[in-house]
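Teaching assistant here, posting this on the class forum so everyone can see the example we discussed in section. The complex has two components, and the goal was to see what a joint structure prediction looks like when all of them are supplied at once.
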Amino acid sequence: MINEAFATSNSVIHRLDPRLKIIYAIFFSILVALCNRFEALFFGLTVTVCLILLARLDKKIVFKRLLMVNGLIFFFWLFVPLTFDGEPIFMLGPFSFSRPGVLLACRFTLKTNTIIMLLIAFMSSMPVYTLGHAMGMLKIHPKLIFLFLMTYRYIFIIQQEYRRLARSAKIRGFNPSTNIHTYKTYAYIIGMLFIRASERAERVHNAMLCRGFKGRFYSLNEYFSTPLDWSISFILFITLTGIIILEWSQLI
Amino acid sequence: MEPTNLIINLNEIYFAYPAMEPILKNFNLKLYKGQRLGVTGQNGSGKTTIFHIIMGLLKASSGDMEFFGKLIHEEKDFQEIRQKIGLLFQDSDDQLFSPTVLEDVAFGPLNLGKSKKEAIDISKKTLKRLGLQGFEDRITYKLSGGEKRLVSLATVLAMKPDVLLLDEPTTGLDDKTKESLIQLLGDLDQSYIIISHDFNFLSRTTSSISLMEKGQLFMDKDFHIHQHYHSHRHGTYPHKHN
């Protein structure tokens, strides 16, 4: 269900302090989302492509993920240039493509790809549990992290239970179609999933109590900032400043 | 035996699930130090309920509970008891909730106030003892059924309990894993209670077997006589049984 295709490797990006990656992923994406000038957007895109290359990820999988996102963006391109008011760039029969519409779609495409690549480089380059622990060290509320890690741990079990139920319906000749019987069966399956999930939650809580759980999680991981962290952090800081200058200064 | 050796003493326990017939009635159980007790009985006879009452996960409506010579009433007392009694759950997926094996095994020791270094040390030693070295960074949900059971046992043993409660430890295990579990249990110095339907397993791991019936535990040995179905690779060839 969740395969952490990029989580383990030994690249520069993978060796970075996870806290640093989280912080920069957040600031960088917010900044890119706010930018409008193409200079800034292209600069941001170039930097993230460099980050992806630095992380030495499997390019096929990266490309596949980008393709998925751009599949959605494709629909955006279908409608926005056609429906946006403004001076037309060119006409195609009765359809007129407006200039502001095309520009907006361009910006949107650039921003989305930049942010997705940024998240791939920074957030998927660590195992999910490291992400959880790192968020903990960034003082995110323990309850949220608890939810996050538990969801991650048990989503597979829930999937298994769903498959078990679906299989048991199937071997008894259940053939989904558009009728009340099908809806009812699915409703039963989903209801059963909820009941089982809540019962399991209780059992897991019991298991935790038995092992002395008092409402606090301890993490075994420790992260230290290395010279590498400081230098990459410095470079990223310069980059972000560069984007801000390109976007908001009147010089260019 | 000396009364000081009495580890668990349940006296006249009464328990019923909401809107159901009482599952434990005048229930008594005594476990002495070094004792290895097997419990068997029909499904729904209340075997697991006993364990949950001992751990304080369920609250008996009446009766006395004495652990290590001390009467126990409140949740706070149970917190202390849980460090001394380790419960192995029926379903390992309930027991293993941390992402990695090492984190899961270290969860107990950390809760007991051990430092990170100590907790990691204890966990590694426990894993090694169970033949699970090299499992530290494995992801818990990706383990096989047998591995999950052994890691669950490691998480319990890492808390260094005086008593173990094992709830159907052999369910879903193949013969080889079952065999290594029997070996492991034989090497332990803890007292334990095992719930199981597997007579062969119980007879090899426990010194006495009790039957759970009608809300009570019978130490009677009469029920030992039972029919035994089996199969082996001799197939239809004539062969002898010893």
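For the discussion questions: The interface with chain A takes residues 52, 55-57, 79, 82-83, 86-87, 89, 91, 93-95, 97-100, 102-103, 106-108, 110-112, 116, 119-120, 140-141, 155-156, 159 of chain B (CB under 8 Å). The mean pLDDT of chain B is 85. Think about how each of these relates to the inputs above.
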